[in-house]
Amino acid sequence: MTPETALGALDAAAAAGEAPLAIAETALALAVLDRVGQGAAAPDTRPCLEALDALVAAVAEAEARSVEPAATLAAGIAGRLGYRGDSETYDDLANADLIRVLERRCGLPVALGILYIHAARARGHGAAGLNVPSHFMIGVEVLGRHWALDPFGGGEPLGPDDLRARLRRVSPDAQASPAALAPVSDRAVLLRLQNNIKLRRLQAGDVPGGLAVLERMRRMAPELPELVREQAGVLAATGAMRAATAAIRGWLDAGHGDPDSRRTLEAQLAGIGSRLN
What we know:
Radius of gyration: 20 Å
Helix content: 55-70%
Structural class: alpha+beta
Strand content: 5-15%
């Protein structure tokens, strides 16, 4: 995958909006662009595509063995291939880079979730990320039956009691509410993946790296006010007032946002402008 092809995948995600995407391939595009942005050569993604095919084949093999439909993803991905959550080095950036996740067979919940979604859809099943706070989970539909899976925890299907227990471990106040279990778009899943990288880079003081991730996020979702607001805030904090101003003005000039969002960004723009004068 060339950097140009990878950028095209982000533009396709922007055009698709909330519609389904080739989610694993788009996550690979993000990983390619991250490598190039860090000054490395574009990696060969053919082994990654082969690894994705192997995931699908492992799930198909579990189905052929008449594994209970709710357990075929776990049997193939975690059982046969050994993909797991990385609880030992959780904050390692490799855990959010899909190329490294496929190489190491471990990663963050959202990165592993992308692999589960990819494999489920390739086998003709419904799958999507869920709006669970803090700890990413997915919802799967097979033969009209629905359940939740925790990819970080081995992908075993979760009944209502198990799901409530998992949510309480994440947050004592968390509930298995309809809102928490609502599906989210593929683009939202990919943004969540990138947010993990962005936060770790900014927390480590790598402001250029964090801004590069924000730029990719904005390319995928140019209309989201929270992204341009954060980008402008980081730029302003580094003293790049003109770049911060240009980011907000570009968003406003493009006609994005509802009246409340536009007023918020206009106020931020005015505040940055007062620091320029």
